[in-house]
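note to self — DONT lose this again. spent like an hour looking for the file last time. sequence + predicted structure for the chain T wanted, 286 res
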Amino acid sequence: WYQRRVRETVKVSYSNPVRQSLFNFDDCGKPKAETAAARIKQINPSAESRGVDLSIPMPGHPVSKLEEEKVKENITLLEDLIDSADVVYLLTDTRESRWLPTLMTSAKHKICINSALGFDTYLVMRHGVKDESEVLEAPQIGASTISGSQLGCYFCNDVVAPGDSTKDRTLDQMCTVTRPGNAFVAASLAVELMVSVLQHPLKGQAPATLDLNDEKQDSCLGRVPHQIRGFLAHFSSVQPASHAFNKCTACCMEVISRYRENKWSSCWRYLTRLIIWKKYPVWLRC
């Protein structure tokens, strides 16, 4: 599939070449986007790629007074990048680093594809694209189809707010330790999911169905699932779908409204209060 503009923000690590086909050992330490751009241009000379030096502000990670201006710049830059994108992929190494991009894509009605890896498991999912004229419905027990505007995001099933997920974790508990083929499978499915979404008449609001025999919700390319969860240990996958949570820390309307009112102060208030109190900030409490 042809994607003209590609952007990346990190450097090639020593664990990347065995599971990311655009890099080899000599590329380790180089900026990922610039290196990938050169490889992509060898394949498709008309492709565009741009590297961005950006550190995503994360809940649970302390920020000093001296870093406030830099964090503000990063938030503005991240917002500009998302504004200019048609589809946003979340492929970062930690759960909490996906919170701010999830909030921004939800507020801007962008298609967001999220992919996460375990040692021998993977998740590929699309976030729901809200229709703000709709009232978020309560999940219906036994329902086989969920509207695309009612689909949950990566954080909708959380029972606690996102925090520092790297603290006190051993190397084997981090996503950089994964079966090499896992990344290729997840990456392929993430791209194909995006294409299926774009080919559906409703685009990001395409509904998800649990009924394998229901072809009414399909795009011209077939099914458009909400999630694909894979398990390499027994070479299987499932396609669950989950409803959006009306008190989600990333995509509920209360959070989105506060973000739209004052982007900087809302993001800063969330990031700092979560660090101090280790629970939902005041403006997220039910």
